[in-house]
């Protein structure tokens, strides 16, 4: 049970702009504007409405993934690209090129991983298709990262290669 009544909940919702959604089963659910989800329902005997607190995992998948830390790390890499890209192009530094390879590699890997996880779901392409596309994405990410490291090591850094392409 929650420490407030439904009347207080309705008042809070009215003052803060929450909308209640009523289902056919007689349950009122507040949308995902607050966490955890608060559900109001009638008891089986038809008594007064009571408010209960549902667990956050009851509405999502059964497997828990730490998407918050992944999102934070992805944003950190995205923001770090802003100074690294001009620094690598302006200085032709080996360190700047290695940092550029690391951040661009992580950025593209996580982006493609999100695409594969979102669009190549096991329900759509089957388990084999999902794991095959995920494995292919990992192999291509590793090959791209290794190729860029080799390119930087063999005296043709990616920034110099891009500058040569631009000069054509």
From TrEMBL:
Keywords: Electron transport, Heme, Iron, Membrane, Metal-binding, Mitochondrion, Mitochondrion inner membrane, Transit peptide, Transmembrane, Transmembrane helix, Transport, Tricarboxylic acid cycle. One of its GO terms (cellular component) is mitochondrial inner membrane. Its main location: mitochondrion. Heme b binds at residue 107. It is a multi-pass membrane protein. GO terms for biological process: mitochondrial electron transport, succinate to ubiquinone; tricarboxylic acid cycle. InterPro entries: CybS, SQR/QFR_C/D. GO terms for molecular function: heme binding; metal ion binding; ubiquinone binding. The chain crosses the membrane at residues 81-108, 128-151. A ubiquinone binds at residue 119. It is found in: Mitochondrion inner membrane. Membrane-anchoring subunit of succinate dehydrogenase (SDH) that is involved in complex II of the mitochondrial electron transport chain and is responsible for transferring electrons from succinate to ubiquinone (coenzyme Q). Belongs to the CybS family. This is Succinate dehydrogenase [ubiquinone] cytochrome b small subunit. It comes from Ramazzottius varieornatus. The gene is RvY_14072-1.
């Amino acid at each position: 049970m929650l420490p407030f009544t439904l009347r207080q909940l309705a008042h809070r919702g009215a003052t803060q702009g929450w909308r209640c959604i009523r289902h056919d089963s007689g349950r009122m659910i507040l949308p995902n504007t607050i966490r955890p989800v608060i559900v109001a329902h009638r008891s089986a005997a038809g008594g007064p409405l009571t408010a209960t607190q549902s667990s956050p995992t009851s509405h999502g998948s059964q497997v828990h993934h730490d998407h918050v830390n992944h999102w934070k790390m992805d944003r950190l890499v995205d923001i770090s690209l802003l100074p690294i890209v001009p620094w690598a192009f302006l200085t032709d530094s080996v360190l700047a090129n290695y940092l550029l390879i690391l951040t661009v590699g992580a950025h593209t890997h996580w982006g493609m991983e999100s695409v594969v996880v979102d669009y190549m779901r096991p329900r759509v392409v089957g388990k084999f298709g999902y794991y095959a596309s995920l494995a292919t994405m990992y192999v291509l990410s590793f090959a791209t990262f290794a190729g860029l490291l080799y390119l930087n090591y063999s005296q043709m850094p990616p920034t110099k290669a891009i500058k040569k392409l631009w000069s054509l």
